[in-house]
């Protein structure tokens, strides 16, 4: 059975489960009650002159008294903080033990600050990320729906007519996105349609000399050879400028492949656990697969307390 605590309901420490009121608490409560009664009496005299004052006027006067009381309390707290602040010390005048004590206090303050920052960073590592990519996108969509809803209400439109709020530039960009075919993914990268589109893209900038083409076709009766032809597999003589064109196209393609880079987010606060870009990419894939299982082990190793409890 829990013992009943000796706590007055008007005590400022009544919410503390370990507090028990003593004589000092009862004295303070009595002083506060007496002061409130005096203020209420003065308030009634000032407002109504002895009659029954208006309720609104009484409420306004009480609010003003509460504001004054808050200002007095805040000014008292500021004075206490000013009194508690240590006076500025001239380091050049300190000698011997006082100087050493002052340096130790500075080191203690620096250690306290660094401990607080380390605790905060370790807590961030231990906790899961607040928002994943899907959640943040969903949040963005919800905020966008709220903004569009406010605009629709302001213009007196229905949700089905939200397209009427789009500008000409926004509508054109939407149409371009709809017309653009999606990028192939997975095994679709190697199907015949994708390979044919890549071939058309590569040959788009190649200029065809129709006169030379017609001349070569007229000179060779088996220009379009079949498998039964005796000249099957025999290639016509290619000029040097065409070989140079092919080499230039291959070189440009290689340069474009090297310059291609997809923009990725860079987080400065993240720990560096890789030796180069390729190793960083590999570590990211490993982290996606096994990060949630190895998080506690990793943190224990970083702290140096990997031993079991």
From TrEMBL:
Keywords, ordered alphabetically: mRNA processing, mRNA splicing, Nucleus, Spliceosome
Region (Disordered) residue spans: 62-94, 111-135
Compositional bias (Acidic residues): 73-89
Subcellular location: Nucleus
InterPro entries: mRNA_splic_SYF2
Biased composition (Basic and acidic residues): 62-72, 111-130
Family: Belongs to the SYF2 family.
Quaternary structure and interacting proteins, as annotated: May be part of a spliceosome complex.
Free-text function comment from the UniProt entry: Involved in pre-mRNA splicing.
Protein name: Pre-mRNA-splicing factor SYF2
Organism: Camelina sativa
């Amino acid at each position: 059975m829990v013992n009943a605590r000796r706590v007055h309901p008007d005590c400022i420490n009544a919410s503390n489960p370990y507090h028990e009121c003593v004589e000092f608490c009862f004295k303070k409560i009595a002083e506060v009650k007496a002061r409130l009664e005096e203020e209420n009496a003065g308030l009634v005299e000032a407002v109504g002159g002895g009659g029954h004052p208006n309720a609104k006027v009484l409420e306004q006067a009480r609010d003003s008294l509460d504001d004054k009381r808050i200002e007095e309390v805040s000014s008292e707290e500021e004075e206490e903080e000013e009194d508690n602040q240590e006076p500025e010390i001239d380091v050049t005048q300190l000698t011997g033990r006082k100087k050493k004590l002052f340096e130790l206090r500075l080191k203690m303050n620096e250690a306290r600050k660094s401990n607080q920052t380390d605790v905060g960073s370790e807590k961030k590592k231990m906790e899961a990320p607040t928002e994943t990519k899907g959640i943040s996108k969903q949040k963005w969509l919800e905020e966008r729906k709220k903004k569009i809803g406010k605009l629709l209400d302001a213009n007196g439109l229905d949700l089905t007519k939200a397209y009427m709020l789009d500008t000409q530039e926004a509508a054109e960009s939407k149409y371009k996105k709809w017309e653009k075919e999606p990028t192939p993914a997975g095994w679709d990268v190697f199907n015949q349609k994708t390979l044919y589109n890549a071939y058309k893209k590569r040959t788009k900038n190649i200029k065809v000399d129709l006169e030379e083409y017609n001349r070569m076709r007229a000179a060779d009766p088996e220009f379009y050879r079949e498998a039964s032809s005796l000249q099957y597999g025999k290639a016509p003589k290619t000029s040097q400028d065409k070989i140079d064109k092919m080499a230039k196209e291959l070189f440009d393609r290689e340069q474009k492949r090297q310059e291609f880079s997809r923009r990725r987010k860079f987080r400065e606060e993240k720990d560096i656990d890789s030796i180069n870009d390729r190793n960083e990419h590999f570590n990211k894939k490993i982290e996606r697969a096994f990060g949630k299982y190895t998080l506690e082990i990793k943190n224990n190793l970083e702290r140096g307390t990997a031993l079991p409890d």
